[in-house]
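#struct-help
A.M.: can someone run this one for me? Single chain, 167 residues.
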Amino acid sequence: EFTTTKSANQAVTGLSPVTVGFKVNLTEEKGILPTTSFIGHLTIPGLASSKLRARYYAPAFRFTMQHTLSRKISLAYNLGAEFNGESPEPSWLYTLTTGYSITDKWSAYIELYGFASKISAADHRFDCGLAYLVKPNILIDISGGFGLTESAPNYYTAIGFSFRLND
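D.P.: on it. Structure tokens below:
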């Protein structure tokens, strides 16, 4: 991420620490049991602009679950934890998302998500987005959202690019 962070009267612009990760499918959907996957990430503090470097490596993980509600609608939820690279305390996280397949290539979603930890106030947010499947393994998306609690950011916008490596 190339980012600009503003706090008080100061703005810092640069490359956030690079994160690498993987996703493993654990189970397929069967009846009331959801499709379940495990996602793991590791943020590398040295691969960032000097003013945005973290002090420590920062692992993160989450279990993702998804139910098919109809041919076009899905319900997904995640539970996990992540470390910020500055503190030994994890931040626990949750998401609740519903997705809608507009066409074979276009999809949209709305999401409620948040974070909780011992060292900071609860942070709850809402967002929505639109995604386009360029090729079977390439996805681009745009999203935006806002905070629901005082500790959450007022708003955000993002553009994403994802690709899947086949085995």
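A.M.: thanks! The first strand starts at residue 2 and ends at 7.
D.P.: also worth noting: The radius of gyration is 17 Å.
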